Fold Tubulin polymerization-promoting protein family member 3.
Amino acid sequence: MAESADMEQLLASFKKFAIHGDTKATGRELNGKNWAKLCKDCRIIDGKNVTATDVDIVFSKVKQKTSRVITYEEFQRALEELAPKRFKGQSKEEALESIYKLVEGREPTNVGVTKVAKAKAVDRLTDASRYTGSHKERFDESGKGKGREGREEIVDKTGYVGAYKNAGTYDDKKKAEK
């Protein structure tokens, strides 16, 4: 019973890595990039016994010749290939059990993701209320950009010159003359 629960956790980890970074992924197939991420995040790659190159070679070995992804069954075969290499002092069954324990229940990490800068210099440079000259016209009082109106002079197509004070009074004058 405990073994089936472990296999369910292994399948759950497989699915989480299979859909990582791909909005169209179904979770049934794992691509090479996500396989390498799984091996790195679950510490299968240790730098001595198992390297990134070893992981890529095993991926190529277990996948179908024309395919670019591996299924869950091929994933299990890949772990069987890596287990004796990763855990050299153990028997094949013990090594396989140990490598399953590394993967079970794990999910992709987001280490090294760029974070928003929180520096006073950045705040000062991006504060639209301190802008001067033509740049100031591109933002409203709240600091929100005006869009196209802030970048271009919008042409007034009324037929009057821009500085003319009595715009829109022509029709009134014609009526007064009659």
User: Anything to note?
Assistant: The chain has eight helices and two strands.
